[in-house]
Amino acid sequence: MAGVCLVFSALFVAIAAGVAIGEMTIPMETTIGAVTNRLGLTDIALPRIQEAVIWDYRLSRSLVAAFCGAGLALSGAILQSLLRNPLAEPYVLGISAGASTGAVGVMLLGFGAGAISLSAGAFAGSLAAFVFVVLLSSGRQTADRTILAGVAASQLFNALTSYIVSTSANAEQARSVMFWLLGSFAGVRWPEVALSASVVAVGLVVCIWHARALDAFTFGEDAARSLGIAARRVRVVLLLATALMTATMVSMVGSIGFVGLVIPHAARFVVGPGHIRLLPACALVGALFMVVADIVSRIIIAPQVLPIGVVTALVGVPFFSVILYRARRGA
Fold first, then answer.
1. Could you say which protein family the record assigns here (predicted)?
2. pTM to 2 decimals?
3. Among 114, 99, 112, which Cα is nearest to 248's?
4. What is the pLDDT of residues 178-204, one digit of tens each?
């Protein structure tokens, strides 16, 4: 309980720091006043521009970062349990690349003639990528085979994305899309806060509802069936929840890697492997990690903003290397 309070406190401080830090220097009292004004708690006279920057840009950005981190961390924890692979996560398995291709297809090619949203296109792309990985790694599923299938899926869908951008976008669109693909919270506002919060809330409830089944999957699908769990149905439901969370985040902020890899292992180290505690811990720690990463991306080369995917990769790649090395030694 003390650990949960500590993480909540750290998350609150990180969001407050994310709201306070930016190109425009705004006093802390103005920042607090802007938030309390919009919440209806106070009626302090403040410069309209500063209040709009705090509420409409910085706070919404920090909240989307938090929900994005929570969703990606949950997705990683689910994939690692279902596939029994410590290296599984949406980015490594190519699911994020597939979602990016679907989103770019809707964005630049107009798939669906306006009837399909960016999130729906990303969802279709993520499902296609996951099916591709499952087909390639079917049979003797080992960690190396699954990761190689994920690498192939990433290369395929990244190539498709590059082809679409190269042939269908002008120079301005190409620059904006390529920056977005590296991960960016620059364009998110309150509608994205509502969407990401809803998707993560539904995903968390679905995952916690199946926490006992996930514990059983740790010992294999046959063990889960022997405990009376409808293994096929649970697998489909959880994979759909994972694809939905990943696709929603990618459609809003682009492809952000390694959050789903690093956070579940860190949370598992703290709270243990039991999913009833692991899943909420992943959501909290993932939210904290992403908010801090967003702050780092804004201050490391200020006044320019580093793509958020670069920051997470700088943390995730060494972590990935250590896990892969340990897995090879244990093979």
1. Belongs to the binding-protein-dependent transport system permease family. FecCD subfamily.
2. 0.88
3. 99
4. 877 888 898 888 999 999 999 999 999
